[in-house]
Amino acid sequence: MIRRVVFRLHLTVAIAAGLVILILAATGVILASEELVTGLAERRYRVTMPRAGEGERIPPDALVAAAEAWGAGAEPPFAATSIEYRAGTDAAVRVHAGRERRVFVDPYTGEVLGGGMARLEGFFESVNGWHRWLSFPDSAIRRGRAVTAAANVALLLLLLTGPILWIPRRITRRSVAEGLLFRRGVKGVARALNWHYVIGIWSVVPLLMIAVTGMVMSYPSVGDRVYPVVGGAISFGSVTAGPGVGQVGGDVAGEVAGQDPLAAPGASLAAALAATESRIPGWRAIVLTLPRPRDAEVRVEVRAGRSGQPQKAGVMRVDRRTGAALSWESFADATPSRRAREFLRYAHTGEYWGLAGQVVAGLVAVGTALMVWTGLSVALLMFRFWRQKRSG
């Protein structure tokens, strides 16, 4: 009796939310490959490092000037807001204008290599819109978010009821093996059910993580209660900035400009870059936020891991006059709620655990799509059987 009630509940929820869950799974597969695809596409912007003694990196302000001159004829004109350095002697420098626009510049020659990949970025932005709010128009984004949020709840319910149905009626070695391994030589409903059970039981744990984090992010009222608990219960690692804050690179500004850095923004950028590189030798990306004319500090974001790993990132503030590192704020220094918010956001995509996490998330998304497909196929076959039985 209980098994029949659970089965009907599982089937009803699956039919009601199956299509939306299928869309979320398919778009999740594409988004899981975004970093890999964009990384391969950016290889065309690789640069050739000059031979020893033949060339050095151009100061950051010169790279910014080259990017702005290249984009001066655009509408609106290219106005740089930050400059990003990537580790590696063949990595181009990215000069950003807000979040949407960027230009790749050769750090040794100052040559502008290109203005990014607008079509590829637009494609992933469109896929992201489908994943988050089903690409509803701007006036109906809230409705789209409500639908995807309900789908996350439905997925969680399916994951809680599915293992109950997976348990064989008679527990034997053979019956358990049939639920854990793909069977050969079966077709039709038997094959669809076998695939559904096997994929579901092997992916239930990461899928629970995806469903729970998606639900928490979808409902702010739930997040407000969950974030403090998660932030206080989980231990988060962080990147250290070497020895205590001191006069790191204190003479760099004077060497570059020979004058007050507040009157020469380029000198402060060079000082901030030198200070950061000397304090965090294992960095993978350094983002210098261009200061306003009278700002006394330069904000520098440092990432020692991949994107989506906030525990391996931090923010350093550097004095524009002296090049001294004034402060370092790591992931561990954030409030528990903020740490939990960042953790749950990137745990949802698997990025928090680096490349391995993204691979697992992508495979699980593929498995989810197959589960939806096989589940709906079984439901359709059962409906046909029911109609034939009723008419007969």
Structure overview:
This protein has 392 residues and is an alpha+beta fold. It folds into two domains: 195 residues; 129 residues, no CATH class. Helix content is 56%, strand content 11%. The chain has an eight-stranded antiparallel beta sheet, with helices on one face. The two termini are 27 Å apart.
- Helical/strand content category: alpha+beta
The amount of beta strand, in percent, is: 5-15%
What gap, in angstroms, lies between the N and C termini?
27 Å
Average residue-wise pLDDT: 88
Gyration radius, in Å: 26 Å
Question: How many domains make up the coordinates?
Answer: 2
For the largest sheet, list the strands in their spatial order. Answer: 4-3-2-1-5-6-7-8
DSSP E strands, number: 8
pLDDT under 50 segments (min length 5)? 244-264
What letter string, H or E per element, gives the SSE order? HHHEEEEHHHHHHHEEEEHH
Largest sheet: 8 strands, antiparallel
Helix content: 55-70%
Q: Helix count? A: 12
Shape: elongated
